[in-house]
Amino acid sequence: MRPSGRHLSEMRLISIETDVTRHAEGSCMIRCGDTHVLCTASLEPRVPPFLKGSGQGWVTAEYGMLPRATHTRGRREAKNGQSGRTQEIQRLIGRSLRAAIDRNALGERQITIDCDVIQADGGTRCASITGGWVALRLAVNKLLKAGDIVTDPLTDHVAAVSCGLYAGQQVLDLDYPEDSEAGVDGNFILTGSGRLIEVQMSGEGSTFSRDQMNGLTDLAEKGVAELVAAQKAAI
Length: 235
Hints:
Layout: E1 14-18, E2 26-32, E3 35-44, E4 58-65, H1 84-98, H2 103-106, E5 110-119, H3 124-146, E6 158-166, E7 169-172, H4 176-179, E8 184-191, E9 196-203, H5 210-234
Parallel strand pairs: 4-5
Antiparallel strand pairs: 1-2, 2-3, 3-5, 6-7, 6-8, 8-9
Helix pairs in contact: 1-3, 3-5
């Protein structure tokens, strides 16, 4: 039995509330169980130096956790003092979202996705990617409505979910009690059409077989399908 009482293939309750901030071009609050992340998208009329004059746009991300997002207070991270974990997660978010955008259609502008974890109970990077896509979608919609771009640069949905081996069982959407004790932990990022963008898997307390990995991938596909449905309903 899972600590939460959920079935092995059952997701946590998902909710996505849009337009939660006044100034950002796109924003949402995504809640996956007790993990809550505020995602905002900001349009900027600039690109990184390596893209100047190319006509291509860029999507990047920043990630952070508020001091009491977890059981004990964490220290605030300054821009130049980010932990390796924070840097790795925000790069993952950026890579994931860029996988489903036509940067030529976006034009020479940048969209920055900020993901701020208000409350953490496992799966914060996955929630950030899923909510970050919604914020990105809303920002792109404003560009289209204003006529600043004529072709939709977003080619597909992007969502992410965790899967792993807990107490020897393959489980979907790990919360913190499961994540902290999982023998194998994995994060799966997929498009709405089921194409894999990135998979992060590690044996933290045990090894795993190819068959087990295939089973976890099947669970991830089910979970992402539910997340994409939530994204569509929110937008």
